[in-house]
Input
Amino acid sequence: MSIIVTDIVREYGAYYINSGQNMARLNRLLLFGRETTKIARQIKTDDTVYRLAESNITSLVQPFQKTWTPKGNITFVPNPIELFKMKVDLDIYPDDIEDNWLGFLASENQNRKEWPLIRYIMEQHLIQKINEDLELKIYYKGVHQAPAAGTAGNTETSMNGLQHHLKNNEKVNRLNMDSLEASIIYEQLEEAYKQISEVYQNVPMLICVAPKWRRAFLLDKRSQGFYQKTGPNEIDDSLDFSPAKVKGLPSMISTDDLFITPNQNLLHLTKKGSNAATFRVEESKRCVSIMTDWWEGLGFGLNEVVWTNVEAPTAP
Output
């Protein structure tokens, strides 16, 4: 990691003068937190592949007769969810900030890993940026790719995200619908909901879309006069006359995708998950290295109760 201070030096000079500057004068852009995993059932595991099984039983009831006529079969089908190992490797040369306006983040301590700069980077940037990377680049859009030896891999290749799963799992149900349109999205989601198995239409459901589509849904709902009975502030994200709610996930930004599944059917698997917010700090000569690694995976407990407009790959 390079500490880029070119603009600081150009504006404030290549020297440090204590003029009362402190961390309160350091501002950063807002970063997204993790939202997708908030709607998931959290499972901690020591496995690198979390092995689930889906079970199903055929009909049992039959007309009575005295003769013994056994009937019924139970089928078990494997449903593994893979966890992927991710890491953060960061090298920092704290001396880069000592001879300019940022010098207040330095220290007389010879151990550079004890400088305020290191604490500031970890507390104000690393945890938040890890969360944003996971939410915006990995949880939905990620496609795993093994890194080239000795070369840092792209963030998006850290693990398979939900879009990859929706595309490639043959048990996921495909919705027959046109592309989302803001002016008719309320009707579109109603029609999509009708395609859900009637057995599940009384089960609390999540309709997951990008945030812009959730807002379009609320606007379209308002335009149809739903607010007239209660007032504009009472418009909520529910699909009326159903136990379904529309959720806007930052992980789905820039997509026109949607998926529908029962509450708690989305699973978030972690191994050493707390490491994503804790770091090991080492110092070698004048370089400070910050590192951590952990495992994560996302999937569905029952793929047969997932409905999506994401198309499956076309056969070659």
Notes: The first helix runs from residue 6 to 12. The longest strand covers residues 287-300.
